[in-house]
Amino acid sequence: MLRSIGISTRQQDDVTDYDDFRRDYFYYEALNQMQQENYDAAFQLLNYCNKIDSTSAAVNYNLAQLYILLNDKTRTTELLNLAIKQDPDNYWYYNLTGLYYAQNHKPYQAISLFEEMMNRFPTRTEVLMTLAELYDETRQYDKELQMLNRYAVIEDVWDELSSQRFLCYLRMGEVDSAYYEIEDNFGDMVQILSQSVNNLAGVNLVLRLCETALKNNPKLSAAYYYSAISMFQIQDEENSLAILADGIEMVPDSIGKASLYGLRSELYYAMGRPDDAFLDYDSTLLYNPNDIGVQNNYAYYLSVAGKDLEKALRMSANTLKAEPNNPTYLDTYAWILFKMKRYQEAKEYIIRALNEEGEKSADVVEHYGDILYMCGDIEGAVENWHKAVRLNSTSPTLQEKINQEKYIE
Fold first, then answer.
1. Backbone angles phi, psi at 3, to 5 degrees
2. Domain termination site, one of 31, 57, 87
3. Which of 169, 195, 254, 262 can pair with 287 through a Cys bridge, CB separation 3.0 to 4.6 Å?
4. What radius of gyration do the chain's Cα atoms show?
5. Domain range for residue 222?
């Protein structure tokens, strides 16, 4: 009797072993091609592996990475999810899929996946921080705070995450809790916050935070300082000056008082009250005589007003002693010399200012033109006045100088 035609069990095993060998061989060669950025070759090899064995999670995962390069979102998502299904214990398959969702503006899908990862891979604490970022993006600040706290406890980094918890509490409207997170670093944090706000809601948030700070510490100079700035931003000049007056009375330390006097002097000058500004500049330097930034501003404003030019020159000289290559300080010194009619000396310093990147400043370039005019170089003066225009100068007299080809006070 004829034996039936077929493949024996041993032969089937041999075929399976051979297929596994081919798949592994071409898979590792595909990885090699990917490492060398030969993506076309890698794509062909991985597809060949997939034909041999479509159940390989590793093949599908790497194919997905190539489809990312091809910007094929549908196929990428299918392959990544298939890889997770085929190997649900592989952290990296989950991680790439979650990040891919996040990068493609699907934060809720990403959150769902990372929440699953949090339970499946409890030792991977970086998942908690990724979730915190995603909760922040979707404005789920209470959940973000939970992730931050959980991470901080596990990794023993409670203090390091205080600024992030601070922002969470602020966004949740819990200003008291926000303050306690940064109580020891209030000045730096409220400065960052104040610089970042660009609307009324943000300004009011700074005001509420400063109010909370002053309830807890009525001698905190930074709270008065940034309250005053915020009030000035919303054009409440009267209360801005009032809070500074309160701060000057309450703050005991010299540097704190100096900062408040210094701010009030700047506000007075911006309000068109230069004489009040000059009095406060004197008070600022009484409490902090080494503040070269204040000395530079005070000296420049005195020169603009044409007052106490010898005093202005001494203060400006102090700034150059501290920072001899500062283009702003060099410009101030040159301008004071100009106002004193010491034009050749002024020219030396303004050239130094220009050489120290002052050529990027419309004010410095205009001043150079003014000084050149007084030195008899009318052509050079007009040329630099034109250059100041190109640098977007806001000088009210610049165009008239160009039209008349003469210096105008």
1. -75, 140
2. 87
3. 254
4. 34
5. 178-289
Evaluate whether residue 41 is within a structural domain.
Answer: yes
CB atoms within 10 A of CB 336: 26
What total of structural domains would you count in the chain? 2
Confidence of residue 16 (pLDDT cuts 50, 70, 90): very low
**Is 35 within the bounds of a domain?**
yes
| Residue-level pLDDT at 21 | 64
pLDDT recorded at residue 7:
37
Number of Cβ within 10 Å of residue 315's Cβ equals 23
Residues 6 or more apart whose CB falls under 8 angstroms from that of 27 comprise: 45, 46, 49, 56, 58, 59, 62
- Give dist(CA 306, CA 311) in Å, integer: 11
| Stretch 135-151: mean pLDDT | 97
Q: Decide if 335 is inside a domain.
A: no
Q: Which residue has the tokens 């990724």?
A: 130
| Cα(284)–Cα(269) distance, integer angstroms | 14
User: Is the Cβ–Cβ distance between 284 and 291 less than 8 Å?
Assistant: yes
Q: What is the pLDDT of residues 218-277, one digit of tens each?
A: 999 999 999 999 999 999 999 999 999 999 999 999 999 999 999 999 999 999 999 999
| Residue 10 pLDDT > 60 | no
Task: Please give the single-letter amino acid code of residue 66.
Answer: L
Nearest CA to 328 out of 292, 289, 285, 374 is that of 292
Residue 93 C-beta-side C-alpha neighbours within 13 Å: 23
User: What residue type is assigned to position 371 of the chain?
Assistant: I
The residues, any chain, with a CB within 8 Å of residue 125's CB and separated by 6 or more, are: 151, 154, 155
In CATH, what number is assigned to the domain containing residue 187?
1.25.40.10
- Model pTM? 0.79
Last residue of a domain, one of 59, 87, 115: 87
Portion of the chain with pLDDT greater than 90, in percent: 83
